User: Fold this.
Amino acid sequence: MTEPTPPHRSRRPRGRRLLLGLMAAGLAALALEAFSGVALRLSEGRWIGLPQLADARVATARGERGDALLRVAKEVEPIRDERVLHPYLGYVMDPRLARPGIRAAGLDPVSIEIGFPRNTEPILQPDDPKRVVIGLFGGSVADILSSAGADALRAELAKAPGFAGREILVLSAAAPGYKQPQALMALNYLLLLGAHFDFVVNLDGVNELSIPATELRPLGVVSHYPRGWYTRTADLVPERSVSLARLVTLERVRRRSARLFSRAPLRFSLTAGLAWRLGDRALLGLMADAERAVLKRPEGHDPQAQGPLLTGSEAAPVRTIPIWQRSSLQMARLCESFGIRYYHFLQPNQYVPGSKPMGPDELEIAYREDSPMREAIERGYPALREAGEALSAEGVTFVDLSQLFRKVEEPVYADDCCHLDERGNRLLGSAIGRALANVGGVAR
Assistant:
């Protein structure tokens, strides 16, 4: 009779099998990791390891492409996040962005709430014989000038006897992207609220030409509508809202996935990294589809987002110049009825041929051969000058400053759009101040 095998002898084969199983699993895991490494190499076009995967996940989790809504808005029409809709002006600057820094920056709360946050004095000034109130109207160049060129403007006015002993306030009623008829509407609106101006300075020309050509017409928006109108109002269409919601949801899923795969033990595995990378790529594809749906122009004509459907001569690009001219004339007539002196200045711009000698440093900063606004400026400025002459014949004080920097060798432009550096703002402020000082002060 065979004796039974002692129990402890059967454990050795089981332990050996367990060890062999673990070794096989380890080898399989190593093989899978090696396969994943090769798959990543083929997928990425380069060798990529755990540190590179970790960096990519961190960037994704933080949103390296930016907020989806903001990104889409900027692809359509820029700077939308700084503005809020306004029932009369199209938009004003978002007061919520300036509120936290009001006290530190010395800004005026009333001006901020109304939508013109650059001012340190209330934009709604009463009539005061001890003060001369100058309102600057136009786009970002005028808005910046109200602070960067104000001292130079005041210095020129102080030389004129009629301004002696009076405080000179330079206030901004301008905003980035404003173009006619927004300046006209802003003047109407501020006077309605009780503002007082001794002088109204309208400094414009560039936005009226460049924004319709580069931003509005490609989206089918009429040229005289405000910048960004398509994006702001098309958001109210249900189909666009659904596409935006889908885009935001996909972006959140993508960020959460990156955070999940950044945790242990997944972050130590090339296989997990490959799975994340492939999934992330699929999410990017879905997001791209959602973005295209958001950016797609509406079928047919959307009067809410694109304005009235104009045909023939009414839809021609030159329509912007007659609107610019009539807006200025109406501003002049409105100012006249209030006893305000009105000045219209055609702003300088680097894309006006022959208007500024530029050295290599300024050319690199301020001039682009392929600038989308260059053609509009080159073709449009002669027509603006002609319209300005017609304004002068109507009794409007029109001053062409497009050649202000014609003999200035030093750099004056701060970017490749239209904005000026410190020297440029000083020179512009001085030129406007000299023009205003020629009237000999303010009659009282």
In short: Residues 70 and 81 are 7 Å apart (CA to CA). Strands lie at 83-86, 90-93, 131-138, 167-172, 199-204, 341-346, 397-400. The chain is about 55% helix and 10% strand. The first helix runs from residue 7 to 44.
